[in-house]
Design goal:
The protein has helices at 3-29, 52-58, 70-78, 104-110, 162-169, 187-190, and strands spanning 43-49, 61-67, 87-93, 101-103, 114-122, 125-141, 147-159, 181-185, 193-198, 203-209. It has 216 residues and is α+β, with helices and mostly antiparallel strands.
């Protein structure tokens, strides 16, 4: 071992020993209770509990909304035309989707303008889909009861007949009411999250990076 490395290791060992003595002294002065340092979490954590049947039948999902972009809403208001209200529904957490998508029927109901067409390839081969500019908003209540919001305008691909597919599958909520699918939550969003799936208990947890959310 070289002399310089030996000296560096010795200094590190001395530093650790001094820090240990400081911690013991702090415990002694506080009457035996170690001092607690609170480090703010970098994640907003929340949980959804749907029950095993709902989770298996529909998959992990959250409540989200789609709305017209701000500039289009301002244009409508300036011309004394009604601004369509946001559409709220279930958005499916889909690790197989590269980007967040909107249900085609939701885009039409909002009166969104098509800005592009793309061809995608999946398990059923190639498919041509429309692309719309829309505002996406997801508001979640964390374990402390605070509301956190993710909001962004994005070019989003439309998924054909999501409502018809889920109606045909007979998907229902735990109280028997129908599910309103409004899109897919893709990997462009999920890259900022941590997911924990409890299949046997019918619940899943999601933690969203605070860098992505608007603070309450």
């Amino acid at each position: 071992m070289s002399g310089s490395k030996h000296d560096a290791d010795k200094r590190q060992a001395e530093h650790r020993a001094k820090q240990k003595l400081k911690r013991k002294d702090a415990v002694r002065k506080s009457g035996g209770t170690p001092p607690v340092t609170t480090v703010p979490s970098a994640w907003v954590k929340f949980e959804y509990n749907y029950g095993p049947d709902m989770l298996q039948g529909f998959g992990p999902h959250v409540i989200a909304e789609w709305a017209v972009p701000d500039r289009y809403a301002a244009f409508l208001a300036l011309n004394n035309r009604p601004v369509p209200p946001p559409i709220v529904g279930h958005i499916l957490v889909d690790t197989g989707a590269s980007s967040t998508c909107i249900a085609e029927e939701v885009a039409k109901e909002l009166g969104l303008t098509q800005i592009d067409t793309v061809t995608t390839y999946g398990a059923h081969g190639g498919q041509t889909s429309r692309v719309y500019l829309a505002k996406f908003r997801l508001s979640v209540r964390d374990e402390d009861g605070q509301i956190h919001t993710v909001e962004q305008e994005l070019a989003t691909m439309a998924i054909h007949d999501m409502q018809g597919l889920h109606d045909a599958m007979g998907v229902r909520q735990s109280d028997g009411s129908p599910v309103r699918p409004v899109g897919l939550l893709g990997r462009d969003f999920l890259r900022h999250t941590r997911l924990t799936y409890h299949g046997t208990e019918g619940r899943f947890q999601i933690a969203v990076s605070k860098a992505l959310v608007r603070q309450p």
